[in-house]
Amino acid sequence: MTSDRSFQVAGWTVHILWIIVSFSMVLWEPIHIDEAITFRHFVSQGWKISLTTYPFPNNHVLFSVVASWAQALPFDPIISMRLVSWVSTLFGAMVLFRIVNRLADRNWAIVAVACWLTSLGGIYYAGHARGYGLQTVLMLIALDATLQIMKGQQNRFKWAAWIISVALGFMTIPTFLFPFAGMAAMMLYAVYVQRNLGLLKNLVLMGTAAGLLTILLYSPLIHFSGLNAITGNQWTQERQFANLTTDQMMAFFPDLFAYVGISNLMLLVVAAGLFVTHRKGAFMHLLPMILVPVLMVLAMRALPFPRTFVFLTPVVLILTVDQLQMVRQPMVKWAVLGLSVLSLIVVSKKEYQAAASSPDHQARELFRQLTGQGFSGQICTNGWNETADMLDFHAWLNGGSIHVKRVYNSDATESSCMNVFTNVAPSGFTQVACVSSGCVYTRPENRD
Q1: Which letter, b or e, does each residue of 213-242 get, where b requires 16 or more Cβ atoms within 10 Å of its Cβ?
Q2: What is the average per-residue pLDDT within 77-87?
Q3: In the chain, which end has fewer C-beta atoms inside a 10 angstrom radius, N or C?
Q4: How far apart (Å, rounded) are the C-alpha atoms in residues 160 and 67?
Q5: How many CA atoms lie within 13 A of 314 on its CB side?
Q6: Is 86 within 8 Å of 125 (Cβ atoms)?
Q7: What is the DSSP letter of 302?
Q8: Are 302 and 385 part of one and the same domain?
Q9: What is the CA radius of gyration of the chain?
Q10: pTM (2 decimals)?
């Protein structure tokens, strides 16, 4: 067996391992609160509700619409919803392979795909029913078209692919603005380097077309819910720098690095060093995809959630491969592939450990205890509590008579609530059911 053949077998083996791990997550991963909200308020209500309501940003509109159609599949409704993310990630891997194969070669394409799929973003959001996987594949389609357009392949098909993928990306999550701005900056840099005014003209025209198509796609939502539903509800307000605590600011970067992958970021640093010494490749043409989102965050003086930048992982890997391919030592590819295997092990172990103590797991156990006692009624909790919210979701999912109410600006135990969920035993209450994150208590006069 030739060296290339051996490497490709090893690379495809990593991809198969990802399929096993990620599909296992689709089947058995505990339900996350965001998935519960997405399913309860949008997907289960049908595609028309998904297309026309936006009470909070859990509605990744295009994802919710497609996921509502997926409910026709003969599977558990949560699994059907997650399959949309899994298939999106699988298709995204194909597009990334195409991009890197054109930029470098087949072996490096295998490496890039393996490193993306085995990152936290590649594993977690493949089995998580949210729109980030769909957003990433749409970004990759648009980036593929951008790279070809920059090389002079400005035919109608390439521009059509760019317009449609950009508009659908915005329809999935409005924060598609970050990769869109990065791709626009890439083309503007190409205009400057190539002195190509024709490209500038097409960018303006096609950017306008993408904007109009985006407005058209959002028109049902704007008509029924108003533009303010997207830009002005309490859940979409900017997290201004001035309003963030030091702990929140400091927590942003570890979370972001975890999504992208520490090993992938280390490889990017090596790639940047190679570019500084060799000045070759498409590194400068691709760099705006990373720099522009950073500059936008600084200009807005608002900090998005780290998961907003999950799309950066394949971009980092394209930049990395662009430089590492110049190193002719075969062991470099093997070493990078080895890092992807290590990442797969670490991320899988972390997700497995988190599953055992997840709020969903605890809420299921709490629901089992309560229904076993014939308990019914309203349970109050102080503000937001994920275990209590998941209890409310499972009660709704099973048609039970339990409902959780959030009490704000006061202590639930001191209000008129007859039942409370808290992790501190309240005076004068009797314990009904208990898990590690808290217990349900009831007032003595509320018991039979």
Answers
A1: bbeebbeebeeeeeeebbeeeeeeeebeee
A2: 96
A3: C
A4: 25
A5: 29
A6: no
A7: B
A8: no
A9: 24
A10: 0.92
